[in-house]
Amino acid sequence: MSAGGRRGDAWQHRFPGFSVVGQSQHWDEATRKVVLARLEPPKPITSLPEEVRPAGVALVAQLVAVDADFAFALLSSIDARLAANETDGWHYDDMPIDHDAWKRSLAGLDEDATRSTGHPFAELTEDEQHEMLECLRTSSAHSWHGMPPARIWNLWTRYVCTAYYAHPSAWDEMGFPGPAYPRGYKNRGVDAREPFEVADRQPHMDPTVSSAP
Amino acid sequence: MSSLRAVRERNESAWLIPSDQRRVNAALRDSMRHYDESEEVDLVVVGCGAGGSTLMQRMARHGWKIVGFDAGPFWDPEHDWVSDEAGSHTLYWTDPRTIGGADPVPLGSNNSGRGVGGSMVHYAGYTPRFHPSDFATATNDGVGADWPFDYDALESYYELIEQELPVAGQDWPWGRPHSYPQTAHPVGGNGELFQRGAAALGIETRVGPVAISNGRFGHRPHCIYRGFCLQGCKVNAKASPLITHLPDALAHGVEIRPDTMVTRIGFDERTGRATGVHFIRESEGVERFQPARMVAVAGYSIETPRLLLNSATDRRFPDGMLNDHDLVGRYLMVQGAPQTAARFDAEVRMYKAPPPEVSSEAFYETDPTKPYKRGFSIQTVSPLPITWAEHVSAQGDWGRDLREKMSDYVHWATLGALCELLPQPDNRVTLSEEKDRFGLPVAHFAYTQCENDKQLIEAAGTAMTHILHAAGGTDAITFQRYAHLVGGARMGRTAEDGVVDGDCRAFAVPNLMITDGSVLPTQGSANPALTIMAVAARAADRLAARS
Question: What architecture does CATH give domain B2-179+210-333+425-448+485-546?
Answer without folding.
Answer: 3-Layer(bba) Sandwich (3.50)
